Every structure is written in C-alpha cells, then in structure tokens.
C-alpha cells in the first residue's frame, strides 16, 4: 500500500475508535467468544448473500441471546462471558443501527434448518458477515 494511503487509513481507523466505532470492540468480543465459549447447541446460520447482510447480522444478534441462555450452564467465568456476549451483541447492533434493515429483512430468513452448524461456525459466520458488511459500506 502507498505510504500516504496507509497513513490516511490509520487516521480514519483512529478517528473511528475515538468516535466510538463499534468494530474494534466487536472484533475483541468475537475473539473472546471464539476462544472461551464452547457450546453443543446447533446454530442456524444465515446465508451470506449480499442483499441480506444486515438481516443476517440482526439474526445473529438474536442468536447471541440464545447463547446466553443455552451455552453458559457450565461456565466458570459466567459474568465475564455474559458481559462479552452482551458487548458483542451491542457492538453488532451499532454497526447496523444506521441502516435501513427493514427493506432487506423481509426477504431473508433467519433460520434455515439446512444450515445448522456448530458454535464455532456460528462465530466464524458473524466474523464473515461483519467483514462483508464493512466492505460493502466502504464501497457504497
Ligand atoms: C479468554 O478468557 C481469558 C480469561 O478470562 C482471557 O484472559 C482471554 O483474554 C480470553 N480470550 C480472548 C481471545 O479474549
Ligand atoms: C429506507 O427505506 C425506505 C423504504 O424502502 C426508503 O424510502 C428510504 O429511502 C430508505 N432510507 C435509506 C436511508 O436508505
């Protein structure tokens, strides 16, 4: 990358952090969940479709509530885990708050039983959705 661009990218990134950009917290939350939570429950993933990213993220926020209810019964650091799940859900919500999600929600299904996956896949899916969403916003 050209040095000038790299600097302006860094500036943007830092400015974003100072203004409460949810992305760094979101990524920290995702890392925490991926490393520290194990769960046997199966998750319904939303397919990664360009027209459905916001809706898929909204579905993931709902699924995170399920994680709180169904995955923490053997948790050692219960409060810390609840905190990180809530933080991740809040950060996700902030990334889509400004969007017009109603238009795309109607045509997207939250639960697709054919796509039941493990907890790790669910977390990976959130990561991919977040990246796809950020890329889409940068390009529009
Ligand atoms: C996992 O939990 C431990 C103990 O709370 C913490 O020190 C560590 O940073 C966590 N992992 C991630 C990736 O956040
Ligand atoms: C939100 O959706 C409505 C209805 O489809 C549309 O008229 C409006 O322009 C959209 N707003 C934005 C910011 O995209």
Automatic annotation (TrEMBL):
Question: Is-annotated flag, keyword Signal?
Answer: yes
Query: What are the alphabetically sorted keywords of the record?
Result: Signal
| Membrane-spanning parts | none
* Listed PROSITE patterns: PROKAR_LIPOPROTEIN
Q: Which residues form a coiled coil?
A: none
Signal peptide coordinates: 1-20
Quote the protein name from its UniProt record.
Interleukin
Q: Which organism is it from?
A: Oncorhynchus mykiss (Rainbow trout)
